[in-house]
Amino acid sequence: MSAKPGVKRRPLPPGTLAPVRPSAAIEALYQKRLQALVDEMHASLLWWIGATYRAKPPEMAQDKSPAATLNEAMDKLRKRWEKRFDEAAPRLAKWFALSVMQRSDRALEQILRDAGLSVRFQMPRAANDVLQATTAENVSLIKSIASQHLTQVEGLVMRSVQQGRDVGGLAKELEARYAITRRRAELIARHQNNLATTSIQTVRMQSVGIKQAVWVHSRGGTHKRPSHVKAGEDKVVFEVAKGWFDPDEGEYIWPGTLINCKCFSRPVLPKLKKV
Known about the structure:
Blueprint: H1 24-54, H2 66-114, H3 125-162, H4 167-207, E1 212-216, H5 226-233, E2 237-239, E3 244-246, E4 251-253, E5 264-268
Antiparallel strand pairs: 1-2, 1-5, 3-4
């Protein structure tokens, strides 16, 4: 993208290296696996709720109302699907965290080699802390997908019974809720990929003595943060350990850590002292 007429591009600081961008491939695969779980859950809920909702006496116990019967069915479905997500979450979260770390490490090692520095990253405590924190956060997020979805579905089912609506109307509401949950899974994959990449890179840069980085605005997305656009245009240099003070947020942040922020950074090699 060319500069505007009459506007000079601000030069990059000496020693600025290429960036490590979040992996689109890892994000896409993580999203696919999350949404596969959501698809499986939705298909099960739709079938069992529809079958229970349509059932009429004498199929239903004579001493139970439709609401009570559906409540029992939802309780069984909640236990089944929360267990399914609880079992899948640790494996999926560990795969994701390791994938991001390994890919980010390889990319940064290559960038440093291109700059004449031979580095092979190990697993010191700081890096392991990031790995464990990323894994734990994603375990929690994966579990929350089922928990939030099932809570919303239960509410839709009970309100539908109370209002005497038919199963067709309920099915439409379930489809709408399903679409919202799929979008949430997509957001989790995108944001966690950006966040994990930044967290790992921050630790790795500090481990090799890189103390500064240049903010790069991604120029992607429909809702651009003005402060991030300006930081990218100004090629703001920030302290890796501290982050950049975002005037709109009123706090120090790192690229990619805010929801829907796709910004990233470029490491700046420290000046070597002459001997």
